[in-house]
Design goal:
- The chain is built from ten helices and 17 strands.
- The chain is α+β, with helices and mostly antiparallel strands.
- It has three domains: about 70 residues, no CATH class; about 140 residues, no CATH class; about 100 residues, Heat Shock Protein 90 (2-Layer Sandwich).
- The strands form six sheets. Strands 3-4-11-10-5 form a five-stranded antiparallel sheet, covered by helices on one side.
- A hairpin with a 5-residue loop joins strand 10 and strand 11.
- Helix 2 crosses helix 3.
- The two termini are about 45 Å apart.
- About 15% of the residues are buried.
Length: about 425
């Protein structure tokens, strides 16, 4: 039994992987948030919305998506008006010469703030959200509303033209105007499959987090899965040869405990197989002595009885020889060499034919394999001998099937009952 350097337990390794993954994802998210500028909202001007309602045609918004017009029989539930919303509806009503009561605005994704922009950059545009006496987001007073509405009207006598200020709305919305027949003309940003800026930002953070965490997760997963793969390979070797080299791994305390238990199991199996084969060999060897005495004693028996007894003794000696050969094959170390399978079959068939057996082999392709030449020759010889003994003829062939080399031996015997097809692979089993 061998073991290696002890590492942290699997629980600790998995916990560290989870913590490092979360930390790496958060670091990437913070880096993106502080590095990239904030995503700009999509603005829609009152003049663009008005133009779409007047013409009934789509309008290209300068800071947003295309505005489209549709007709529908009803609008969604009315939303309460705040000063900004009322101001925006009043501006639309004046431009269309309709009452603001016939105008309805619906924002699906939460409240939208209506702002004003004077020239290239007005104080309201910089403010963003609604502003009033209460500060950002607070209610606007009557004086504020009167001042803004006064700027939308004609200039007072003696003053020049008013500055370019225009109400704006950003985000998704539906603005409907009720017609005389009760239907609604609705303008809204054209639905699009493209992602908004904030959605693109989230996907970018997700993608970068995956890229940052993937190598770390791959290293941890490989480290955790390595012992499992080694156990599978060791179990496969143990099935072929109980005398395989003991498993040696480094890893966590759980892995080292499993390695120790596996090596102890392999040692017990090796001792069990060796004790069983040694017992079989001893019994088979000891049986040869009484059989030899029986062979001498039957010399004095009548001829007809002596022939039958001699046949039984020969059969018993053949069985004992097979048992001893089996013990020798299982106790000696396996020697795998490259050999040509068709030549091996031909040599066995030729030896059987020389002793008078009707054994033939079909000429086939040459297939080179790696195997134990002694064990394989004994296996093929048993197949040919059984075919001749119970089927009178033996016909052998070798061919390739995909990545497998197939060796077949046919005969004309009665066959094996279906109930015994699995048992014929047991050592020393013999049918009727």
């Amino acid at each position: 039994m061998t073991s290696g350097r002890r590492a942290a337990p699997l629980f600790i390794q998995a916990l560290v992987l989870v913590i490092l993954t979360l930390v790496a994802a958060q670091v990437v998210a913070i880096a993106v948030i502080f590095t990239l500028p904030p995503p700009p909202p999509e603005f829609y001007r009152q003049s663009e919305i008005t133009r779409a309602l007047k013409t009934g045609q789509p309008v290209e918004a300068r800071d947003g998506r295309q505005l489209v017009i549709k007709r529908q029989h009803r609008m969604g539930p009315a939303q309460p008006d705040n000063p900004r919303r009322a101001e925006f509806k009043a501006a639309i009503g004046r431009a269309l010469d309709v009452s603001p009561s016939r105008i309805q605005i619906i924002t699906d994704n939460g409240p939208r703030f209506f702002v004003r922009r004077a020239g290239k950059a007005s104080p309201d545009a910089a403010r963003g959200p609604e502003r009033g006496p209460g500060g950002p987001g607070g209610p606007r007073g009557p004086d504020d509303l009167k001042s803004d509405l006064r700027r939308d009207g004609p200039p007072p006598p003696g003053e020049g033209p008013p500055p370019r200020d225009e109400p704006l709305i950003f985000g998704d919305f539906e603005l409907g105007v009720r017609q005389a027949d009760g239907s609604w003309s609705v303008v809204e940003p054209k639905p699009s499959f493209r992602l908004d800026s904030w959605q693109q930002r989230i996907l970018l953070i997700l993608g970068l987090s995956i890229l940052a965490v993937s190598p770390l997760a791959w290293l941890f997963a490989r480290r955790l899965a390595g012992p499992i793969t080694a156990f599978a390979d060791a179990a496969e070797r143990l099935g072929r040869d109980p005398r395989a080299v003991p498993l040696e791994l480094t890893g966590s305390s759980e892995v080292l405990a499993a390695v120790s238990a596996f090596n102890m199991m392999q040692e017990r199996l090796r001792r069990y197989v060796e004790d069983r084969t040694a017992m079989i060999g001893a019994i088979a060897h000891d049986l040869r002595t009484p059989l030899t005495r029986l062979r001498f004693r039957i010399e004095a028996t009548p001829e007809d009885v002596r022939v039958k007894l001699a046949s039984d003794i020969d059969q018993m000696e053949a069985m004992i020889s097979a048992a001893l050969a089996f013990v020798r094959d299982t106790t000696r170390p396996a020697e795998r060499t490259r050999l040509e399978l068709a030549s091996l079959l031909e040599s066995v068939v030729d030896e059987a034919a020389e002793t008078g057996g009707q054994a033939t082999v079909e000429r086939g392709e040459k297939i080179v394999i790696e195997g134990d030449p002694v064990a394989l020759k004994r296996l093929v010889a048993n197949l040919v001998e059984n075919a001749l003994k119970y089927g009178q003829v033996a016909r052998g062939r070798v061919f390739r099937d995909g990545g497998m080399a197939i060796l077949e031996v046919d005969d004309d015997g009665p066959g094996i009952p279906a109930s015994e097809l699995e048992r014929v692979f047991e050592p020393f089993f013999r049918g009727e």
